[in-house]
Backbone:
């Protein structure tokens, strides 16, 4: 009888667990979102070396990739993991979707370097293409090193023709950097783990559908991003 009771107890416990097998807000995903919020705070800390406010106000999406590893000898490469958030119709920001950045380079280089990167998506089309799974900067979406400073006017912004503007932070300062040739890809597994669901698409997260529980760090990141993009 005791064995039967124990078996029934564990059976009942199993029925109470989510069918996906995920817990909302897995550890490393939560930590990554926290780091992304800090990267945004640092990004706007020195206005003279940050993206022009008008570019941020008109952004259709922003990707934040902390700790990109650049390494190589003769041939090199880079890898990073972070999040992307999409602008909603009412001007608010969506919950984060996890992404990976992978790219290669060729030329004389030596050593390993870690940088933080931010990508400002200027067009809705580039966001839609990323939502389908992956884009290659410079091929699927025209990309360029982002301009810096507070003096850019609305008239100047009109002449900016790239779809994605990229920035990197090294030694504490942000500057425009070219990430052309890098692939930005949706990380479905990390996104599922973060929200405790299975089979989420980027479009569903951006639209807020299917998601009933959002880890508090996501709301904090939205708050930080909103404060600096209005």
Residues:
């Amino acid at each position: 009888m005791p064995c039967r009771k124990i078996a029934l107890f564990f059976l009942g416990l199993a029925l109470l667990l989510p069918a996906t097998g995920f817990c909302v807000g897995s550890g490393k995903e939560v930590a990554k979102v926290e780091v992304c919020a800090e990267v945004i705070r640092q990004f706007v800390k020195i206005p003279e070396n940050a993206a022009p406010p008008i570019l941020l106000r008109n952004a259709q999406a922003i990707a934040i990739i902390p700790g990109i590893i650049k390494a190589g000898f003769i041939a090199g490469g880079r890898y990073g993991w972070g999040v992307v958030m999409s602008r909603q119709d009412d001007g608010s920001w969506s919950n984060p979707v996890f992404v990976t950045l992978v790219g290669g380079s060729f030329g004389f280089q030596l050593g390993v370097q870690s940088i933080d990167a931010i990508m400002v998506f200027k067009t809705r089309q580039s966001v839609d293409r990323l939502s389908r799974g992956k884009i290659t900067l410079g091929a699927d979406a025209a990309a360029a090193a982002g301009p810096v400073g507070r003096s850019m006017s609305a008239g100047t912004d009109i002449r900016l023709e790239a779809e994605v503007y990229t920035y990197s932070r090294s030694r504490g300062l942000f500057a425009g950097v070219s990430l052309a040739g890098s692939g930005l890809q949706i990380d479905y597994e990390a996104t599922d783990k973060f929200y405790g669901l299975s089979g989420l698409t980027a479009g569903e997260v951006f639209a807020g559908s299917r998601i009933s529980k959002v880890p508090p760090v996501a709301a904090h990141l939205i708050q930080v991003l909103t404060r600096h993009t209005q």
